Amino acid sequence: MINLGITLAVMDMAGTTVADDGLVERAFAEAVGAVGVSTSDDRFPAMLDHVRATMGQSKIVVFRALLPETEAQQANSAFEAAYGRLVEAGHCEPIPGAEQAIKDLRAAGVKVALTTGFARPTQDAIIAALGWSDLADIALTPADAGRGRPFPDMVLTAVLRLGIDDVRHVAVVGDTPSDVVSGLRAGASIAAGVLTGASTRSEFEAVRATHVLESVRDLPALLS
What is the annotated signal peptide range for this record (predicted)? Predict the structure, then answer.
């Protein structure tokens, strides 16, 4: 039933399976505010541009590119706390059709891994808020794998932990070029971008995405 013998789908969360609606940027503003960079600071626009350009990557790595180590750690903790509060306040919804897509894939025998650039407490908060504790086969963060996107570590960790025989039997889907690059570096046959988050079709084409989908809800049809 599944083209290319796909046995594992690795899916990003914010922007791909979970609606972002500006939450990352809101949490970022609060995070850098905690280390003395207000939204009116001359440094803020360039920092925000960097955050937008690195969507999907490990958040601590993003902060380390902007701040000295001590401040980066402080900002990262503030970011996770701010994002967690937004989730707890109800600002967390699935991308329409995402949950059904995951269920359809698993019913067809495809294992599903949810991945993120967030730390474990934030990922757990999102999964709990959506009632997704049993939806996927595994949920991974950069800390679980060694490095975050665009490195292939989370994809390969999912392959190992779920007993996938061949990286060519993997499909990776996400809303940023980093998601696509991580999939290609891992050897996945499908490294698809979705247009429900941070990036455009041309940005996905620039990193040689195998497919560009309107939404993750279109993935089961692609694999059928």
Answer: none
DSSP string, 147-189: S-TTSSHHHHHHHHHTT-S-GGGEEEEESSHHHHHHHHHHT-S
Same structural domain, 54 and 105: no
Alpha helices in 19-119 (DSSP H): 23-33, 44-53, 59-66, 69-88, 98-107
Return the structure tokens found at 151. 């490195």
45 and 97 housed in the same domain: no
Print the domain residue range for 32: 23-88
Number of domains in the chain: 2
List, run by run, the mean pLDDT of 10-residue segments along the chain (224 residues).
79 93 88 91 92 86 93 92 88 94 96 94 92 96 94 98 96 96 97 94 97 97 91
